[in-house]
Design goal:
alpha+beta; single chain; 29% strand; D-amino Acid Aminotransferase, Chain A, domain 1; 281 residues; nine-stranded mixed beta sheet; binds pyridoxal-5'-phosphate; 2 domains; D-amino Acid Aminotransferase, Chain A, domain 2
């Protein structure tokens, strides 16, 4: 595969990272993962806005303009001959002798890759099992940083319980998943955690809120409890890779008798139409 290193396209084994890169030593960096449908970057502008916000919040300098970066991502997709796939890229604060304080001068380091990912492999229309796991992450989950240990530990724990995803809670409040946002349905209404410091404001979350508006499905962005989660009419999660994914079991508890819900179904159909439209545009 061809990877992106700064402004250069290299083969995977030519890419070298300095051992004193702050991304490596401190997780001092940010990233984005963007879905590719039919060779095109999906919801690109929203991803780039979130990238700029993450950079601002960490006072990290983006090494290239968004336009230039976008050109390079498109080249990366073409060089790897991606039809449906995923582009991942990250930017660290660069290399400097190890100390916590920001170095006076470093050059941010950008690396990126692109992989193929078919929708058949990524989607799970029949639903998955999830586990409720304590949210032990820091208080700035709104920034898409490379620091993902809280997420990694949660997902590993869920996996060891036979689940595909960890649904996180702080006390009684459900926040999000280890790598996705969480929605519940009560009496025909969508409910999801507000976009504050406790969750990452997912681009798929935003897109689903937009689809819900178009479909006249009422939405509440508000806190909801683990009890509301377990007694919900429907539960589903959203992410760039998995789109809308029904959750039909949480721990030992079946959700809606273990079958995907009607509203999740309508959103999955609407999502599908949008992807078809984009692929053929
Ligand atoms: N929340 C967390 C913690 C994530 O890591 C992700 C994505 O990986 C999401 C939510 C979903 O965000 P998006 O829809 O932008 O992929």
């Amino acid at each position: 595969p061809t990877i992106l290193y700064q402004d250069q396209f290299l083969s995977r084994d030519q890419g070298k990272v300095d051992m004193e890169d702050r991304g490596y030593q401190f997780g001092d960096g940010i990233y984005e993962a963007i879905r590719v449908y039919g060779g095109r970057l999906f919801l690109l502008d929203l991803h780039m806005k979130r990238l700029e916000r993450s950079a601002r919040e960490l006072r990290l300098q983006l090494p290239y303009s968004i336009d230039h970066l976008t050109d390079n991502l498109r080249t990366l997709i073409a060089k790897n001959q991606i039809d449906d796939g995923l582009v991942y890229f990250q930017i660290t604060r660069g290399a400097a002798p190890r100390q916590h304080l920001f170095p006076e001068e470093t050059e941010s380091v950008l690396t990126g890759s692109a992989i193929s990912l078919s929708r058949e492999d990524a989607l799970r229309p029949d639903g998955i099992k999830a586990s409720l796991i304590d949210d032990i992450r820091w208080l700035r989950c709104d920034i898409k940083t490379l620091n993902l240990l809280g997420n990694v530990l949660a997902k590993q724990k869920a996996h060891e319980q036979g689940s595909e995803e960890a649904i996180l809670h702080r006390g009684d409040t459900v926040t999000e998943g280890s790598s996705c946002n969480v929605f519940i349905v009560k009496e025909g209404r969508l409910i999801t955690h507000p976009a504050d410091h406790f969750i990452l404001n997912g681009i798929t979350r935003l897109f689903v809120l937009d689809l819900a508006e178009r479909l006249d499905i009422p939405v509440q962005e508000r806190l909801f409890s683990t009890e509301e989660l377990l007694s919900a009419d429907e539960v589903f999660i959203t992410s760039t890779g998995a789109e809308v994914k029904p959750v039909v079991q949480i721990g030992d508890q079946l959700i809606a008798g273990g079958r995907p819900g009607v509203i999740a179904g309508r959103l999955m159909d609407a999502f599908d139409k949008e992807v078809t439209r984009i692929r053929t545009a």
